[in-house]
From TrEMBL:
<feature type="region of interest" description="Disordered">
    <location>
        <begin position="1"/>
        <end position="116"/>
    </location>
</feature>
<dbReference type="InterPro" id="IPR039876">
    <property type="entry name" value="HAP28"/>
</dbReference>
<protein>
    <submittedName>
        <fullName>PDGFA associated protein 1</fullName>
    </submittedName>
</protein>
<dbReference type="Pfam" id="PF10252">
    <property type="entry name" value="PP28"/>
</dbReference>
<feature type="compositionally biased region" description="Basic residues">
    <location>
        <begin position="1"/>
        <end position="12"/>
    </location>
</feature>
<feature type="region of interest" description="Disordered">
    <location>
        <begin position="150"/>
        <end position="180"/>
    </location>
</feature>
<feature type="domain" description="Casein kinase substrate phosphoprotein PP28">
    <location>
        <begin position="84"/>
        <end position="161"/>
    </location>
</feature>
<dbReference type="InterPro" id="IPR019380">
    <property type="entry name" value="Casein_kinase_sb_PP28"/>
</dbReference>
<feature type="compositionally biased region" description="Basic and acidic residues">
    <location>
        <begin position="150"/>
        <end position="166"/>
    </location>
</feature>
<feature type="compositionally biased region" description="Basic and acidic residues">
    <location>
        <begin position="49"/>
        <end position="58"/>
    </location>
</feature>
<feature type="compositionally biased region" description="Basic and acidic residues">
    <location>
        <begin position="101"/>
        <end position="116"/>
    </location>
</feature>
<feature type="compositionally biased region" description="Acidic residues">
    <location>
        <begin position="59"/>
        <end position="68"/>
    </location>
</feature>
């Protein structure tokens, strides 16, 4: 092929030292601070002018949307103006503009979720009242378990009494045998 090993991409590489990287970051932070300070100085001048204050109070949300859109543009998008009729710009509503009193249209999933929760609540009320099949089965099972436990307790009590009687009669016999 050619007399050279490797192509044009094998040239000597340059590595940046950590000190250079730190210096670059510091320079970027300094630029950002300067831009913020310049922006704040421009904002202070607007606060002193009553005409500009009135304009800012009367301004519609469309101006806010344009500002947001300008801030969001990054990279090549800032250079090219795109006219997309299908693009819907997101509108941010302020808390004062929200309509909480009006009827809210629910999606099918939301309606189904609400119905599901209500049905579950109704079932739990019926279950606690003992009117469902499962509740009846549970109550019957509990009654059987109670009877078994009562019988077991009664048997234990009888066994203990029998044991006590046996030990008492054994002690009496010993005391009688010692008295003779």
């Amino acid at each position: 092929m050619g007399g050279r090993k490797g192509g044009h991409k094998g040239r000597a590489r340059q590595y940046t030292s950590p000190e250079e990287i730190d210096a670059q970051l510091q320079a970027e932070k300094q630029k950002a601070r300067e831009e913020e300070e310049q922006g704040e100085e421009g904002g202070d001048g607007a606060a002193g002018d009553p005409k500009k204050e009135k304009k800012s109070l009367d301004s519609d949300e469309s101006e806010d949307e344009e500002d947001d859109y300008q801030q969001k543009r990054k990279g090549v998008e800032g250079l090219i103006d795109i006219e997309n009729p299908n693009r819907v710009a997101q509108t941010t509503k302020k808390v004062t503009q929200l309509d909480l009193d009006g009827p809210k249209e629910l999606s099918r999933r939301e309606r189904e979720e609400i119905e599901k929760q209500k049905a579950k609540e109704r079932y739990m009320k019926m279950h606690l009242a003992g009117k469902t099949e499962q509740a009846k089965a549970d109550l019957a099972r509990l009654a059987i378990i109670r009877k078994q436990r009562e019988e077991a307790a009664r048997k234990k009590e009888e066994e203990r009494k029998a044991k006590d009687d046996a030990t008492l009669s054994g002690k009496r016999m010993q005391s009688l045998s010692l008295n003779k």
